[in-house]
Amino acid sequence: MTRIETSLSPLAGRLLVAMPSVTERAFRKSVALICAHSESGAMGLLINRPATNMTLRRLLSEGGMPPPQVAIGVPIHAGGPADIERRFILHSEDYDLPAHTLKVCDGIWLTPHEDVLIDIGRGRGPAQAFIAMGYCGWGPGQLEEEIAGGAWLTSPATPDMVFDLPSEDRWPNSMERMGIAPSSLSILSGHA
């Protein structure tokens, strides 16, 4: 397989879990998977925000792609507030689109190309898939500042968190996996 292998930074392949002090609507109680991180900034996808009124059939139709040939129950998510017309597909490692597939972490790959959507609709896509519209972006040093300021907790990403767990359970489950009871956190966390 021809995949894009990158030297993973400490934040690529990690989940960002919003602290209760994050009240901005787009990020309140959010969980984001960091897909790429370098000195130039970071890119990630929210993994717990289902896109309302969006289906694979509609997504393919609006993108001018052929309609699905198989019944597909892959949910569509709002990946972030930036560039919501772009589609990003997180998937299991059994799928490869040469020169477009990027390893995020063990068991989770990213292909930001419409061919994977067409393959999913034809029943030839990856065994596990997560489709996001839009992404989250941070400029140089911005994400590190937000983490240091107490806006985010980080934890390793796992395929089950991205592909198997229901969207609404991802934020509380992320907290619990870190040994934190969400009810014990104050909305004023990180503020003196």
UniProtKB/TrEMBL annotation:
Gene3D superfamilies: VC0467-like (3.40.1740.10)
Official protein name in the record: UPF0301 protein BCF38_102472
Protein family (similarity comment): Belongs to the UPF0301 (AlgH) family.
Organism: Jannaschia seohaensis
Transmembrane segments: none
Top-level taxonomic group: Bacteria
SUPFAM superfamilies on file: VC0467-like (SSF143456)
Any one annotated GO CC term: cytosol
